[in-house]
UniProtKB/TrEMBL annotation:
GO molecular function: heme binding; iron ion binding; monooxygenase activity; oxidoreductase activity, acting on paired donors, with incorporation or reduction of molecular oxygen
Annotated residues for binding of heme: C80
Gene3D superfamilies reported in the protein's UniProt record: Cytochrome P450
Keywords: Heme, Iron, Metal-binding, Monooxygenase, Oxidoreductase
Name the UniProt record assigns to this protein: Cytochrome P450
UniProt cofactor(s): heme
Homology family: Belongs to the cytochrome P450 family.
Amino acid sequence: MASILNLPPIIARKVDVEVNLKNCTLRAGSTCVIGLYGLLRHPVWGADAEQFKPERWLDPATLPEHPSLYAYFSIGKRNCIGKLFSMMVMKVALVHIIRRYRVTGDINNVECEFDIVLKPIKGHHICLKART
């Protein structure tokens, strides 16, 4: 599921209290911008973090310890209120698609633009082949 959501825009949050991190301090009242595009492609997710591999999320042993580590629905007190509903809808839809089709694609050549969400300029480049 999470591989589908690999291309979110940045998240900006106001820092309520001073936070001391390993290499810097975030002052109260400042704005912190998190670039999820790069964060979600960090090598901590594996050498193949940039590849579309939905199966990586099937093994509970390889999932993040804390659900906020993979922040595709944002994090904190202002995260997405539709997270649970949208995840359920995606799971049901994917079950129906994957049962009927073999799905392949190449996201390496997708050009995206920033809007309310990051979206492909020329649509999604996937191939559906009916299962026999």
